[in-house]
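Throughout our pipeline, every protein is held as a single compact record rather than as scattered files. Nothing more is needed to write down the fold, since each code stands for a local backbone conformation. The record that follows is passed on verbatim for readers who wish to inspect the format.
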Amino acid sequence: MKAVVEISMYPLTDDYIPPIDVFLEKIRTYPEVKVSTNPSSTRIIGEYDEVMSCVNESIKNSYEGGVKATFVMKVLNNPAEKTKWDD
């Protein structure tokens, strides 16, 4: 089953860009999912189990790295078509 997770990370620090960059670098290490970003969120598309594993491990990696952050996500079982924000 295909799925898409749209996720936004909100680091609880004034210097918020570096933790987001590390989070995105981790997500992009999973070749089995497609990743696209826009100014406010990231979409991860692929098979449900692979997408959820990618998200779970990437969030865990951030927390284990000492990052304090809030993550907000939507999970859909019908991946959206390409948008103008796809990279």
